[in-house]
Amino acid sequence: MTRHDKLFIPGPVEVSAKTWAAFSRPMIGHRSEAFRELYRSIHPRLQTLFGTSQPVFLSTSSAWGVMEGALRNLVRKRVLNCLCGAFSDKWLDVSRRCGKQAEPLQVAWGKHIDPEQLDENLAGGDFDAVTLIHNETSTGVMNPLAEICAVVRNYPDVLLVVDSVSSFSAVPIEMDELGIDVLLTGSQKALALPPGFSLFSVSEKAFARAAELPDRGYYFDFLEFKKNQASDMTPTTPSVAHIYALQSKLDDIFAEGVAARHARHTRTNTLVHDWVRTHGFEFFAEGYRSITLTCVRNNRGIDVTALVKRLRADHHLVIDGGYGKIKGETFRLSNMGDETEETVSHLLACLDDSLSA
Ligand SMILES: Cc1ncc(COP(=O)(O)O)c(C=O)c1O
């Protein structure tokens, strides 16, 4: 057996033995009654987590599939992409690759999307949709979602697409109450499932928009998902293994309690924040800090690559040495998924050891 290095990177994160056991259950046909039962067994709990009475869809793709699909389903012509880090910045490029007129609302990495600035942009432009990454995983910024949603609600023709890839199930996100038109998440981050799968939900307004657009394609056609979900199925052959794993994870989440899960993430994140402060480091995010991961500014000028290497070699723990253009200037510690005060404290103690080596 290969050595197990436990992941504390901001996704993929550690997958529990219980989840793996569910993932490796014997296969069933995706048009069978057993599959429909499986989908039915998870759907109400997914609606609760999404804060929606709309259908929740299962996509056998990583999150980018749905992120690109949202553009193809909702944008007639022009989209405003809110950019504050590597993943949100990429959405501008993807919009243009899909042939859409895309405008950036760019803020410096480390800053959050300012609702007032968003309002000014929307007032001045004829936009079909806005894209927002709630928790920008590269910088550790968690954008002020409620305030941003309140702004977009003042523009009834503008649909709001929210990526909650690294925040979903760790903080409350009430899709219907907030007026979000597409809420999406991936499997390998806050949900602590293996990568390669995503979940999303779509508002009635967004379905109506999709019906107007002829070039939705097939694999990510929201109306195909809607039609199939009505009979507890997916448009194409899904990764059944992921759905078994998701069922098991939902059992865990609801046994712990959704509010208790949120509180656990806040507590473990506080432990990391305290560690950052007591060790003379600073935060890369200037405010609006994520509660699922921490992007630490390397103001002490340590050798981040060496730290990452030592932690892995000596303790079999893996952290991330910074993403994209802030590699080495930062490092990131995740407290997503199943992590507890005990496991996060262990990580921090091992970091102390590797820092002093
Ligand atoms: C916030 C956010 N959105 C989107 C993605 C893209 O996810 P994937 O590569 O699984 O499609 C990531 C990946 O790290 C992410 O952190």
What does this molecule look like?
It is a single chain. With 357 residues, this protein is α/β, with parallel strands linked by helices. It contains 13 helices and 14 strands. The chain has helices at residues 17-23, 33-50, 63-74, 86-97, 115-124, 145-153, 175-178, 204-212, 222-229, 240-256, 258-278, 304-315, 341-356; strands at residues 6-7, 56-59, 78-83, 101-106, 129-133, 135-136, 141-142, 159-163, 182-186, 198-202, 282-283, 293-297, 317-318, 330-334. The strands form 4 sheets. A 7-stranded mixed sheet has the order 2-10-9-8-5-3-4, sandwiched between helices. Helix 7 links the parallel strand 8 (159-163) and strand 9 (182-186). It is globular and about 60 Å long. The two termini are 29 Å apart. The model has no long low-confidence stretch (mean pLDDT 97). The structure holds pyridoxal-5'-phosphate.
Concise structural overview:
This protein is of the alpha/beta class. The chain has helices spanning 17-23, 33-50, 63-74, 86-97, 115-124, 145-153, 175-178, 204-212, 222-229, 240-256, 258-278, 304-315, 341-356, and strands at 6-7, 56-59, 78-83, 101-106, 129-133, 135-136, 141-142, 159-163, 182-186, 198-202, 282-283, 293-297, 317-318, 330-334.
